[in-house]
Amino acid sequence: LVSKLPNVGTTIFTVMSKLAADTGAINLSQGFPGFDCSPELVSLVDRYMRKGANQYAPMAGVPALREALAQKTLAHYNVGYDSETEITITSGATEAIFAAVTAVVRPGDEVLVFEPAYDSYVPAIELNGGIPVYVTLTPPDYSVDWQAVSEKITDKTRLILVNTPHNPTGRVWTTDDLSQLAGLVRDKDIWIVSDEVYEYILFDGRTHHSLMTHPELRERTFVVGSFGKTYHITGWKVGYCLAPADLTVEFRKIHQYLTFSTVTPIQYALADYLQQPDHYTQLPDFYQRKRDLFLAGLAQSRFQFKPAEGSFFQTVSYATITDEPDYDLAVRLTREIGVASIPVSVFYNQKNDYKILRFCFAKEDAVLEEAAERLSQL
Ligand code: GLN
């Protein structure tokens, strides 16, 4: 069989989590909470399973969950989405990204990708015959060079993939970023997939500027979210896509043949859970404390860093410590000091030697303290 993804191996998340497990290392590599979700949410799933919510959900998602999400979106962003025609529940953000890219991209279309990029984007583009065109974000601040973006837009550009708050860098887009993007796509047949799975995890008083809050962008954007990040349930794989009705029609044509629908009892449970005063309002404080605890532990180390603006990832530079390639160092640190991380070069298409590792700080305090102490020995 001739591979359709010849440049793709097993994802770095699987590789590093396995190495951490095999070596007994602290796993700050793959991004997932090291603590459990609300017991109440588990009870709700249990209740709905016992009530028989065990068959296929409606293709677009359980209506009560779509409605709850519409209300939450209105309350939080002051933007209305029609639950019937503009909201689709998906099997994780990963499925939503794949479906949105597939809905838009035809063979030969160019798709702008900011790199470092989350690892599912480029395969989704390439499997649809699209051509990724890269705009590089560079340390330490990873801000977007809008002049560079404008130079990469051509008649063939069909889609731009946005991710804010950004994985792996933690960078958060500003309102100026939104205006710049809107200016570049105005009057063009360019659509946008905005991956906003860390929408509620922002630090130091920052606001998440969802692309939906810009009226022009709202009309051409698939906004993708994930309940996994917000409710500490990454293993449940439930996400969503908010998009104007005409885009949602096309999105659902793909979704219905990728998975048809998404796990039923969890959708009912989330619909109820979303009615309650929401724990997402505490997420910034909750994760900022963890970020700061981890960084306080690294204060005496030789790593250099700028505190993450959002997400549950912290990138650090090891340029003053060693010349090793980041992948080699990530493997060595896992084996030798028992702390697993992600080498950030894997998120770039273009070879580089920025010497950056990514650590996930969605872990128990004691785990973060122990990891920082081990890293400080370097
Ligand atoms: N999004 C998570 C991360 O960046 C991993 C998800 C996955 O393993 N596919 O670490």
From TrEMBL:
Keywords: Aminotransferase, Pyridoxal phosphate, Transferase. Residues 25-375 form the Aminotransferase class I/classII large domain. One of its GO terms (molecular function) is transaminase activity. Pfam families: Aminotran_1_2. Gene3D superfamilies: Aspartate Aminotransferase, domain 1, Type I PLP-dependent aspartate aminotransferase-like (Major domain). InterPro entries: Aminotransferase_I/II_large, Kynurenine-oxoglutarate_AT, PyrdxlP-dep_Trfase, PyrdxlP-dep_Trfase_major, PyrdxlP-dep_Trfase_small. It comes from the Bacteria. Its cofactor is pyridoxal 5'-phosphate. The keyword Nucleus does not apply. Transmembrane segments: none annotated. This is Methionine aminotransferase. The lineage of its organism: Bacteria, Pseudomonadati, Bacteroidota, Cytophagia, Cytophagales.
